[in-house]
Design brief:
This protein is an all-alpha fold. The chain has one domain. It is 48% helix and 0% strand. Its EC number is 2.7.10.2. It comes from Canis lupus familiaris (Dog). It is an enzyme of class 2 (transferase).
């Protein structure tokens, strides 16, 4: 999955950027290393919704 850019990877990047914004700059996946993040995502898991994030925005 590395070095493959697509609309899907763009959407994921946008989602992570929005997560960072709504969490006031917290580090995403802060307790995980690269391979753990990849496994987490491939298992269909997602980061929890930041407290200040509207549910409508999180579901995007």
């Amino acid at each position: 999955n590395f070095r493959k850019f697509s609309s899907r990877s763009d959407v994921w990047s946008y989602g992570v950027t929005m997560w960072e914004a709504f969490s006031y700059g917290q580090k995403p996946y802060k307790k995980m290393k690269g391979p753990e993040v990849i496994a987490f995502i491939e298992q269909g898991k997602r980061m929890e919704c930041p407290l200040e994030c509207p549910p409508e925005m999180y579901t995007l």
